[in-house]
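Input sequence (217 aa), recorded before submission:
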Amino acid sequence: MKQFNQILFLIVIVVPTVIAVKGVDLSASFNNFFCIKNAGYQFAIVRGYMSYGAADTVGLQNLRNAKASGLIGDAYFFPCKGKKTASAQVSEFDDVFTSEYGTVWIDVEYNPSTGCGWSTSDYSGNCQFLQDIVRELGNRGRLVGIYASQYQWSTIMGSASACAYFTSKPLWYAHYDNSPSFSDYSKYSFGGWSTPSMKQYQGDTTLCNVGVDLNFY
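Predicted structure, token format:
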């Protein structure tokens, strides 16, 4: 029994502890990212491109404020399908944000802005537009990931299994179960990804007097 306890002790020592890295995403103007960092969060994802088709200069200042406070800084890109080409939108975004962020996450969800919505019938066109956005960013040497939920992906692409062309890119998925864990993903998978990279586990909450969503990886 003594030898068994010694072996068990060694196993406990050498098995690494998995610690969730938590962060926020936000769109509102904000300058107190030290509060967010002191609350235990380690990254911020700011809006980089707005749903109606324009780069977000407020988001750029948020990114700089977040990084100045010691947070990891990414950006999300809410594309407008209709008013402008993928190339034009990426050019507008890149002219403003250049390489100040880590990864740019393409936001694949319902777009409420007039003239910018995803097609409700041309699923292949939706898929192609997303490929165009990803390609244009890749051509500029940017790190690209995809943000979506199973429901949004199915609605926009036609089914959960459709448009499985992005599995080499990291996936940030949304499922609001208030659990910073990937244990739910097998039930809510989509797009061909077998493993996600990040999860948005709580939406529309308030932290440090600003509206945020909560995420982890």
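Checked by second reader. The longest strand covers residues 198-207.
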